[in-house]
Amino acid sequence: MRFRLTPRETSFYDMFAASADNIVTGSKLLMELLGADTSARAEIAERMRAAEHAGDDATHAIFHQLNSSFITPFDREDIYTLAGSLDDIMDFMEEAVDLVVLYQVEELPKGVEQQIEVLARAAELTAEAMPNLRTMTNLTEYWIEVNRLENQADQIHRKLLAQLFNGKYDAIEVLKLKQIVDVLEEAADAFEHVANTVETIAVKES
What we know:
Elements: H1 11-34, H2 41-68, H3 76-102, H4 112-129, H5 140-164, H6 171-205
Helix pairs in contact: 1-2, 1-3, 1-4, 2-3, 3-6, 4-5, 4-6, 5-6
């Protein structure tokens, strides 16, 4: 790590950790959705919406701190990118839950639970990694594993698309379900964007 002669603003680390912890909350709500009756989904969606709003608040707090800080712990552009990518994850997870409710989906296709399990694992890894930005240690395994999980998510997504287009579902149902599984895939991509940004930061700081 480079030796620095000037102090650094440290509250960013706490804000990134809080944002990642909120993503874990979102991933747990996704898991809860899987086992819920259709009658309980609207309430889960409401809690997910609240979590998404909390994520927005966390992102705005980071941007406000960035705009008011003369000294930052690492490059301003990287802080902006990391905060925005964390926010994207919550947006995609909230959108997926909202679509399930709005489209009144009776049963999600087999394989969606695997998508959500990947997201839940990526959320845990991301939450564990954020505090390590403070020392830039124990991060390599994090971004390697998240990239592996994203590759796994790609495979699951392709299998789900094949399942949706096998003739079992009518055309309208295919459109509904495809949008849901596509948004979950975008969440997996967003986790990878976070991991790639962390790798970029670590390389610059080494």
